[in-house]
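User: Could you go from structure to sequence for me? I need the amino acid at each position, not a summary. C-alpha cells:
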C-alpha cells in the first residue's frame, strides 16, 4: 500500500501548554483510522495542522503529491449570503462545477443551457456522479438548496459541510465529529458509506459503535505522545488496558530501584563528583520515570440528588402542534422513580418539543402534565448555555454555588469540585474562551449536576464529550437514583444507560418500547418479512403504465433469476463473516487490509446482483 500521510517530530503548544511533543505516525492508502484522546489534549488542533489550517511549532507534515484532501471541521462556518447549494458545491472539482451549473439551469428552466450542459455531462460521464451527489444530499436530508446558510441551525450547517466534503470525493478524508447532529438513520448510512468508500480516513468521533464498524486503526493521544493500535475500538480497549498495566509496572520497578540509587547518592559524594557520572545521569532519568503517576486521572461522579417522592410526573393525552404540524398526539405516560428512558426519532419529529413541555418551557395544546412537588429537573440542552467567554472557569462554578454536596454526605468548594471533574488547578483561572469545545461541554455538565437534580433530561449529551468522560457519565447514570430521560444518536451510550425507549415515528405518534437500542433493532428485524430481497423490490417497484405489455421471463432469464437468489444469499453470508472478522480485532495488519478490500468488492457485487434481481423480478 502506498503512503498517504507522513508526520515527523510534530510538536505544538497552546499558550504555555504543550499539547503534543515529537509525534511520529503515518497513514497508508485505504487506512480507516480514528484519533482518541481526552478533551483539551489537542485532537482538533492536530487535525487542523494536518489539513493545513494551522502551522505547528515544529516538525513536518507530508501528504503525497496529487492527493485531494477533504476536511470536515468541528464547527463549520460559511459567509452570509451563500446558499446551501453554493456551500455544498463550493469545491474546484470539474465534475462538481459541472453538476452545480446543471442544477442551476434546471432550477431556472434554461433549456438552451440545459442542452449544452447535457452534452458536457455525457462527455465527462457525469451522470453517475450526479446520482451519487443526490444520494448524499437525500441521505443527509438536505433539500432546501436555495436557503441562505445564515438561516441554518448548527446541526443543519454541520450536515451541509459534511455533504460538501463527501461530494468532492477526496482521496483523504479528515473528519472532526462527523456524527454530531445526525439522526440514527443518517449515522447508519454514513457508517456504511465510509466503510465502502476507498478514501483513506482519519477522524475524531465519540461514537463507539461507529468506531467499531468503520475503523481498522486507532491512534490514542496521551501524555503528549501517540500510541497506535491495529484494530477497531474493542481491540483498542483491550490493548490499552495492557499498555497501562505495563506502564504501571515499569513505574513501580523504577520506584523500587530508586530507593537503592538514592541511598548510593547519599553515601558516595566523591563518586558523584568523579567516577560515576553515567550512574548519576541514570539516577535522574530513573527519578523522572518513578515520579509519574501510576493511575490515570479519573472523574468519579457522586453528586447528591434531591429526594424524589412517590409522585414524579404524569402525562395524560398531551398534544402539541406547530403551524398545523402535529408533533405530539395524545401521549400519556406515568414516570416512576428509577426509570431510564431513551428517545429515538428523526430530526423534526418532536423530541425537543416533548422535553420542553415536560420542563414547562412549552405548554401543551391539550392534555395535562401533572408534576410532583419534589421533582428537581436537571436539563442538559443540546445547544448548551451561553457561558461568559470572559469569565474564569472557577467563576462560572462559584457564581452558581460556593458549596456542592456529594452523595456520601460530604461537601466540596468550587475548586475541589473542578478538580473532581478533571479541571486541574492550572485551569481554574483560565478564561472560558480558552477552553476546547469538549471542555466547555464538561463545564456545562457541571452546572447542571451541581444543582442536585432528581430528574435528569439530557438532550444529546454525548456531542463533543470525549470517550473517557462518556464512560464515567454512563457509570453515574446507571447508579442514579432518580429519573433519566435521554435524547441521543449514540447507540453505545443508549445501550449502556437506558432500559426503555420512546420512539418518535412522526405524525405525533410516540411508541413505547421496553428495552435498549440494540434490543429495539433486534425487534425490528423480527418484524421484517423472511425474504428481505423481495421486500426491497416492493420499496423500489415502479407502478406499471397502462400501455405496458405483459412480459414473461425467458428460460435463460429464469435460470439467471434463480442463480441470483443463491448468489445474493452467499454474498450476504460472506459479508457477515467479513464484518465479524474485521470487528474481532484479531486479524494481522495484512489480513485486516485484505479483508477490508474484499468487503468493498463484495458490497459492490451485492449491489449489482440485487439490482439485476429487482429488474428480473418485475417479469417473474
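Assistant: Here is the amino acid at each position, in order:
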Amino acid at each position: 500500500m502506498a503512503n498517504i500521510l507522513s508526520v515527523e517530530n510534530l510538536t505544538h503548544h497552546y499558550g504555555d501548554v504543550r499539547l503534543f511533543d515529537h509525534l511520529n505516525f503515518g497513514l497508508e492508502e485505504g487506512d480507516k483510522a480514528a484519533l482518541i484522546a481526552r478533551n483539551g489534549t489537542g485532537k482538533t488542533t492536530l487535525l487542523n495542522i494536518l489539513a493545513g489550517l494551522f502551522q505547528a511549532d515544529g516538525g513536518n507534515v507530508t501528504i503525497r503529491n496529487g492527493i485531494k484532501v477533504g476536511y470536515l471541521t468541528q464547527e463549520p462556518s460559511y459567509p452570509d449570503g451563500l446558499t446551501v447549494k453554493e456551500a455544498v458545491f463550493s469545491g474546484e472539482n470539474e465534475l462538481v462545477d459541472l453538476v452545480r451549473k446543471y442544477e442551476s439551469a434546471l432550477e431556472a428552466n434554461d433549456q438552451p443551457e440545459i442542452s449544452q450542459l447535457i452534452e458536457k455531462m455525457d462527455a465527462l460521464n457525469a451522470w453517475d456522479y450526479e446520482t451519487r451527489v443526490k444520494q448524499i444530499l437525500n441521505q443527509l436530508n438536505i433539500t432546501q438548496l436555495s436557503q441562505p446558510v445564515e438561516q441554518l441551525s448548527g446541526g443543519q450547517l454541520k450536515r451541509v459541510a459534511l455533504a460538501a466534503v463527501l461530494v468532492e470525493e477526496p482521496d483523504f478524508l479528515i473528519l472532526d465529529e462527523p456524527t454530531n447532529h445526525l439522526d440514527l438513520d443518517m449515522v447508519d448510512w454514513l457508517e456504511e458509506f465510509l466503510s465502502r468508500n476507498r478514501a483513506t480516513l482519519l477522524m475524531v468521533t465519540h461514537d463507539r459503535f461507529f468506531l467499531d464498524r468503520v475503523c481498522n486503526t486507532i491512534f490514542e493521544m496521551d501524555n503528549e505522545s501517540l500510541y497506535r493500535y491495529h484494530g477497531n475500538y474493542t481491540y483498542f480497549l483491550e490493548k490499552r488496558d495492557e499498555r497501562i498495566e505495563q506502564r504501571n509496572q515499569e513505574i513501580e520497578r523504577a520506584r523500587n530501584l530508586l530507593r537503592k540509587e538514592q541511598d548510593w547518592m547519599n553515601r558516595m559524594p566523591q563518586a558523584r563528583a568523579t567516577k560515576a557520572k553515567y550512574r548519576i545521569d541514570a539516577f535522574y532519568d530513573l527519578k523522572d520515570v518513578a515520579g509519574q503517576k501510576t493511575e490515570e486521572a479519573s472523574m468519579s461522579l457522586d453528586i447528591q440528588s434531591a429526594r424524589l417522592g412517590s409522585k414524579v410526573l404524569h402525562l395524560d393525552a398531551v398534544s402539541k402542534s406547530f403551524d398545523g404540524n402535529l408533533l405530539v398526539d395524545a401521549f400519556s405516560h406515568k414516570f416512576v422513580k428509577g426509570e431510564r428512558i431513551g428517545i429515538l426519532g428523526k430530526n423534526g419529529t418532536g423530541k425537543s418539543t416533548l422535553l420542553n413541555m415536560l420542563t414547562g418551557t412549552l405548554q401543551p395544546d391539550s392534555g395535562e402534565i401533572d408534576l410532583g412537588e419534589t421533582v428537581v429537573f436537571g436539563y442538559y440542552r443540546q445547544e448548551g448555555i451561553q457561558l461568559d467567554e470572559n469569565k474564569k472557569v472557577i467563576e462560572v462554578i462559584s457564581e452558581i454555588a460556593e458549596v456542592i454536596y456529594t452523595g456520601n454526605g460530604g461537601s466540596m468548594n468550587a475548586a475541589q469540585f473542578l478538580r473532581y471533574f478533571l479541571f486541574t488547578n492550572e485551569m481554574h483561572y483560565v478564561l472560558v474562551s480558552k477552553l476546547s469545545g469538549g471542555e466547555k461541554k464538561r463545564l456545562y455538565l457541571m452546572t447542571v449536576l451541581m444543582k442536585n437534580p432528581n430528574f435528569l433530561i439530557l438532550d444529546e449529551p454525548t456531542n463533543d464529550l470525549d470517550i473517557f468522560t462518556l464512560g464515567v457519565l454512563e457509570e453515574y447514570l446507571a447508579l442514579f437514583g432518580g429519573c433519566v430521560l435521554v435524547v441521543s444518536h449514540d447507540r453505545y451510550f443508549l445501550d449502556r444507560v437506558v432500559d426503555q425507549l420512546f420512539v418518535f415515528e412522526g405524525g405525533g405518534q410516540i411508541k413505547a418500547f421496553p428495552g435498549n437500542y440494540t434490543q429495539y433493532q433486534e425487534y425490528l428485524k423480527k418484524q421484517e418479512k423472511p425474504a428481505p430481497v423481495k421486500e426491497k423490490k416492493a420499496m423500489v417497484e415502479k407502478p406499471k403504465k397502462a400501455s405496458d405489455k405483459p412480459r414473461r421471463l425467458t428460460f435463460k432469464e429464469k435460470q439467471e433469476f434463480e442463480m441470483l437468489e443463491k448468489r445474493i444469499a452467499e454474498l450476504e453470508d460472506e459479508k457477515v463473516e467479513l464484518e465479524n472478522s474485521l470487528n474481532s480485532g484479531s486479524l494481522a495488519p495484512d489480513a485486516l487490509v485484505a479483508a477490508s478490500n474484499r468487503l468493498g468488492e463484495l458490497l459492490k457485487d451485492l449491489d449489482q446482483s440485487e439490482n439485476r434481481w429487482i429488474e428480473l423480478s418485475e417479469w417473474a
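One structural detail worth keeping in mind: Residues 531-549 have pLDDT under 50 and may be disordered.
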